[in-house]
Here is the input.
Amino acid sequence: MQNIAILAGNIGQDPETRFASDKTRITSFTLATSRPRYSEGRVLRDENGYRVQDTEWHRITCFNGVGKTVQEHCSKGMKVLVRGRIHYTKWKDQQGNDRYGSEIIAETVQFLSRKQTENERGGQTDYDDDIPF
Here is the structure.
């Protein structure tokens, strides 16, 4: 029996890290994956001729070393390949109703693009410091 998940997509927001009481590093982020929308066996296109995409959002959780690497080297918009397993949880909300959730526990995260610099995100650099005279 195997529980294997492989997802390739774009990171939805900068990864967030917290620490459990036993000092375990837990880093999480969301990942968007897209696929073309079909109708009657054909790919749907919008008025400009572009394929219509259905996007799904996945919660990704990384532990310890993988989490540290993701926190240090990943940011919103990056393309990554996540290999891991699907984990389901069940809890009761404040009204006593059963609630369910799922996430991907990442075993590896492969970078398919690089982290954007502040300039690429639209930040401004003070160019006066680079003038040699």
